[in-house]
Amino acid sequence: MLPFSLKTKMTVTISLLIAGLLSVLAISTQMYFVNQLKQLLYTQQFNMVSAVADQIDDKIFSSQTELVAAAGTLSKGAVTDPVALKSFFDDRPDTLAMFDNGLFLFSREGVLISANPAETTLLDKNFLHRDYLKNTLATGKAQISEPFISAQPHHHPIIMFTAPVFGNDGKVSAVLGGSIDLTKNNFLTRIGSVVLGKEGYLYLYNKDRTMVVHSDHRRIFRKDVPVGANVLYDRALAGFEGTGETVNSRKVQVISSFKRLKSTGWILASNFPQQEAYSPIYKARTYVIFALAVVLLISILIVWLSMKFLTAPLLAFTEQIRGMTQHKEAAQPVGVNTGDEIEVLRDAFDQLLAELEAQKSELKRQLDFSRILIDIIPIPVYYKDAQGHYLGCNQAFLDFNGLGREELMGKTVHDVVPPDLADKYYRSDKELFGVGGVQVFEAKAVNGQLAQRDITFFKTTFPASDGSHGGILGAMLDITEHKQAEEALQTQKEFAESLVMKSTVPTFVLDHRHRVIIWNSALEALTGIKADDVLGLENLWKIFYETERPLLADLILDEALDGLSEHYGHYRHSPLISGGIQAEGWYRDPSGAGHYITISAAPIRDRNGVLVGALQVMEDITERKLAQDAHEKTRRQLQLILDAAGEGINGVDTQGRITFVNPAAADMVGWTQEELLGQNQHALMHHSREDGSPFPVQECAVAAACHEGRPYKSEELFWRKDGTSFYVECNCSPLREDGELVGAVIIYKDMTERRLAEEQLLKLSQAVMQSPVSIIITDTLGNIEFVNPRFTHVTGYEADEVIGRNPRLLQSGKTSPELYQGLWNTITSGRVWTGELNNRYKSGATHWEHATISPIRNSAGAISHFMAFMESISERKKLEEQLRQAQKMEAIGQLAGGVAHDFNNILTVIMGFGQLLQHSLPAGDPMLESMEQILDAADRATHLTRSLLAFSRKQVMLLHQVELSDLARKHAKFLVRIIGEDVTLKTYFCEEKLMVMADSGQIEQVLMNLATNARDAMPGGGELTIKTEAVQLDEEFHRMHGYGMPGRYALITVTDTGTGMDPETQQKIFEPFFTTKLPGRGTGLGLSIVYGIIKQHGGYVTIFSQRGFGTTFSIYLPLNVEKPQTVEQAATFVPQGGSETIFVVEDDASVGRLVESVLKRYGYNVILAGSGEEALEIYQSRSHDISLALLDVIMPKMNGKELCEKLRERSPQLKVLFLSGYTADLIQDKGIAMDGIDLIRKPAKPMELARKVREMLDAQ
């Protein structure tokens, strides 16, 4: 096969390059446009599917809306009327057209009542098992069912729409249903007839993989797409919406789009075969391939013609060179002139020819030189042809054989040497021709004197001109003297080996190739390995080490002494042997016993200093090393102890001079160790007393003990370098050697910190023992190790009763386990826990405590204990609960008071105008009875508002001195009638006068409410006891209840023998609207009103009750120590009128008009103002006309009290009558008790108002 020409190679290469570039460009362009086309196709297909889905949703919603509208026209009576039902269905052809499988009416029990078209086989059957019917009846909402097989005779798959029919009671009385047959032509099944392209189609399926609509009607209502058969189908069920490539369940590659219907959640999908969708892409790909082929052919033709033109001069140049090789004469320059690179190549070739001629001349010269050189070589050299004939030799060869050059040329070995040697030489020549290379061997030779010599032959072949073996070149080295020396050396070696082998020190020798050549008996004993098993072994490390590493002898052979520190921690160079190394190491023998060995290794060199081996000696010094290590360890430990000791340690001789000092001692006194050594200890650091006076050495007990050699221990005063002093705990011990005293060791410890620590510890101990809160210390397992006296005082446990036990003995069971778990997790993680715990005393009583529990860490930072501080917060808890209750009552009271205030204004108008109207009617007028009913109802409403005001503690109280026992005695007669005949009333009244400041009417209200509650608590009859007495409240009362000022109080108790109350009910009993009575039997305000009245009187109310043992209410009112006042009973009279001017200020217009009408009826002149600001302006101009100001208290911006103050600033003698209903009107609060000021409560009757006005005007 001929090689390709340069022209062909270049043509193919450039054409392929052009084709490759064009292919890359074409493929990239095609991929871009294919991608764009796919995205466009995906978008169009998804938009189409989305549009169809929206149309289906519209159809479904309109069908459902139509059905709901139809259901709304179906009356309850028509449901049970067959004629009305027939008319109902006949009048809705449009609805029937929407639901091609008919309309159905079901009762609320699920029974089919009627159908259109009539389904006689299904009538009166119960379909309540259908989900669509159950859901509609349960929710009252329209439903769309999943596909199911109809119970109708055709048994087609259908979809049911339902709409509830509501009765007059607002409940579902029937269900109207409309169904669509999935096998008929309707708006759903027409989806399956949509064709995309030639083979594409649409289909619809639901969430449980059931096919709702499909172009293949056989697949409707089938689950024939298993999980995993269509990836995008599965993803759409998981929520995917969009377009992508997939393989459908029929193994067809398709482009699928998915859109979920908003109405039913079903999934509308389209499948468009990829083969059809991508057909334009496949056609474009064919066009591109054809275009690339055409471009490739054209490029090949153009490149081939171009290369033919360009290589023509190169071909001519080649022919001229080929002609030069056929002539032996000197080469002539090449004659090619092109002016381009080929001409440059010609010049280079001409230069090469010139250099070759010069090299030929130099080669001939060197050949002549080599012949001369061979002749002067002192060792015999010869060369022969392939047949064994001598072609030449040097003078040394001729001299060895004793022959002349002419005698040797052309002869063979058989002609020159004895036959036995000739045969051997001949065989070696044949062998050399066979294998080639260089042949070296030792043999005998006979010289010209016929003496045998030991010769080393070196032979090789040289090539002929045709490349075959041309002959043999040989050299002979006379080694006779060398062999004799070797024999002598071998004798010496055997002696040395015997000496090494018999040595008692384990020894081995490696040659220069790291092979074991000697392994002595002692080493066999140490390692348990025989010499025969290791001689010649190179990887000796396997015997001594587990991982590969060099032996000391290996490092010497490799002359890698820089690696000594890497493998040996202790080594040194031998001072006796040059290159010798001594090291220490560890060896574990096969039995597992460890040996500490010293290793000595030295190089073995020949007479020329060449490294030929290494000797390694190993000595087992395990016992000695262990003793040395123990001694060194002890010494080092002692030194470390001395250096690390926190105490100062001085060694002194018998003269008191310091011979040793540790760092702690130097740090203590401020001198360095070097400065202290040699100094007299007493003169340097023990020279003075605390007052600064000299301390003679003769009086120093430490110096005396050191001198006398006796132990001594005391506290001494030492002095620092800076002149400051400090107390130390000093301990002096004598030092003796062979019984002779040589000095002493003085150990001293700075007591400054210890003294401070002892003081701090004493303070801390006192603080813990005298702490006002309980303190517990436990170990890390929670076992108690310490409790302070406060703990034992609070809990009742003695210390020895709880030490060693777990704090859970304090648990009451009212604190959640989760809280305890969180507490434990917090403190065991090293953090502080703070919270509230409900604990139990030893007595069984429970109490709330605020606990702070924190870890205690030791000097290493590890948690060693836990400490708890626990402070009783039971009182605070009670106060918090009372505050919460008070705030709640205050908030509700504000609401009730506000409502009552506004209601009072309304009642004032109703009652005022009602009385005016009543008085204007003539006697016998039939309207009088109606008016009396109105006024009676208004009067009852007045009592209701007063109850609300009493509850809110904002009712205006008319306080005066009341004897409580007398009041209760008089009111008891009224209570007998209230409680009924089956309840016995018992009274016990105190003989002492119980004078209190109270509103008697409100106190009577309290007794009546309590009696009424007691009656209701004793439905079967019982006893009601009322008792009065005087008591003294003290701190114990406050401690038990959390409130109560010390002092004397009047106590009235109301006790019944009824059902009693549990603690939970007692906590809510005073809350407004809380009642235990049956509906309609109470308002829930009775006890709230009691609470409000007593609080308004500055008193307290408590309750004690037990289930089945009745209830006792205790009411405490402060006793009045002032002299009882005599109250004159005002005479009842009919009010008279007058002509004075009354200034009325009322922000409620209706109340203002009422007051104006009443006063004018009695002849008064009235000036009316609607606010405080307006009143001031009017009063400014008409103050001289005004005899009395009638003011509402609660007004916006400026209230009645503020207005009163401003009016009286201008007219101090002005008489003022306040019109109000509760204490927030700022009258009682501020203590206005000035002459000419009075108060009338709302709602005020006209006669009362007129009487009060007249009283004030007539007063002096």
Automatic annotation (TrEMBL):
PROSITE patterns: HAMP, HIS_KIN, PAC, PAS, RESPONSE_REGULATORY
Taxonomy, superkingdom: Bacteria
Catalyzed reactions: ATP + protein L-histidine = ADP + protein N-phospho-L-histidine
Localization annotation: Cell membrane
Response regulatory domain span: 1141-1257
Record domain PAC: where: 581-633, 712-763, 833-885
Domain Histidine kinase: 898-1121
Residues annotated with 4-aspartylphosphate modification: D1192
GO cellular component: plasma membrane
Pfam families, per the entry: dCache_1, HATPase_c, HisKA, PAS, PAS_4, PAS_9, Response_reg
Bilayer topology: Multi-pass membrane protein
Main location: membrane
Group of enzyme by EC: transferase
Molecular function GO terms recorded: ATP binding; phosphorelay sensor kinase activity
Sequence ranges assigned to domain PAS in this UniProt record: 366-420, 492-564, 634-680, 757-806
InterPro entries according to UniProt: CheY-like_superfamily, dCache_1, HAMP_dom, HATPase_C_sf, HATPase_dom, His_kinase_dom, HisK_dim/P_dom, HisK_dim/P_sf
Domain HAMP: from-to ranges: 308-361
EC number(s) on file: 2.7.13.3
Keywords linked to the UniProt accession: ATP-binding, Cell membrane, Coiled coil, Kinase, Membrane, Nucleotide-binding, Phosphoprotein, Transferase, Transmembrane, Transmembrane helix, Two-component regulatory system
Range of residues in the leader sequence: none
A GO BP annotation: regulation of DNA-templated transcription
Transmembrane segments: 287-305
Coiled-coil region(s): 342-373
Protein name: histidine kinase
Organism: Citrifermentans bemidjiense (strain ATCC BAA-1014 / DSM 16622 / JCM 12645 / Bem)
